[in-house]
Write a structure and sequence with these properties.
The chain is 41% helix and 30% strand. By secondary structure, the chain is α+β, with helices and mostly antiparallel strands. The protein folds into two domains: 136 residues, no CATH class; 63 residues, Arc Repressor Mutant, subunit A. Strands 1, 2, 3, 4, 5, 6, 7, 8 and 9 form a nine-stranded antiparallel sheet that branches. Helix 1 crosses helix 2, helix 7 packs across helix 8 and helix 8 crosses helix 9. The protein is globular and about 55 Å long.
Length: 211
């Protein structure tokens, strides 16, 4: 029986993985699924970005293999293999259950779960041996599962963040008390990324409310 499961968010700096370096060089942002370490030693990366130069930099990176892009209206989705073992795998080895990874201007945010304080300490120590790491958020899993809008309405954490921040800042008020640019700045993403998350989140909410 698992007695304590914690939702945690780490801020990681100083990583030299391809995605971190690409966003650091371009000032762009990337939303990534948990990287998958394959038996052949390569890491499968799946991510999206609205910054075209990130794809160009990765295509020129000798550590990247088989880069594939699926173009969207505003964001592009990529898949590729990387020779570089991601720092997050050090956390996974210690018991971190990663859900999402986001890269903004070379800084990473890892969101996931750990079972117990002892595992959390091991994860922090493992990350700190390789990169700069800061624990940004921690809460019991039960609290988020019961109260989080992302769980109740089947939203991704980033969609929930965009909707909640927009609501709190008065983006939906008439007249508006905040612009799309201001809300995007508040959550440290581009206006284009904010508007896409907002549309996807609203679509999911309307589908469930009107079904």
């Amino acid at each position: 029986m698992i007695s304590e499961c914690l939702v945690v968010e780490f801020r990681v700096t100083g990583d030299e993985c391809p995605l971190a370096e690409a966003t650091r060089a371009t000032g762009g942002d990337v939303e990534a699924a948990a990287p998958l370490l394959r038996d052949d030693g390569y890491t499968l990366l799946r991510f999206s970005t609205d910054e075209a130069d990130i794809g160009k930099r990765l295509d020129a990176d000798d550590r990247i293999r088989y880069l594939h892009r699926a173009a969207g209206d505003e964001r592009h989705t990529y898949r590729c293999l990387s020779k570089e073992r991601c720092v997050v795998h050090r956390l996974i080895d210690e018991g971190f259950l990663v859900e999402t990874v986001r890269y903004v201007d070379g800084v990473e945010r890892h969101v996931g779960a750990v079972v117990g304080q002892e595992v959390l300490h091991g994860v922090l120590e493992a990350a700190g041996e390789a990169v700069g790491v800061q624990l940004e958020r921690i809460s019991p899993l039960g609290e988020e599962a019961d109260d989080g809008i992302s769980t109740r309405w089947n939203l991704t954490p980033t969609q929930a963040e965009a909707l909640q921040t927009a609501h709190e800042m008065g983006y939906f008020d008439v007249p508006k008390r905040a612009t799309a640019e201001e809300v995007a700045d508040a959550i440290d993403i581009s206006k284009t990324a904010f508007l896409e998350r907002l549309r996807r989140g609203q679509s999911e909410l309307f589908d469930r409310m009107l079904d």
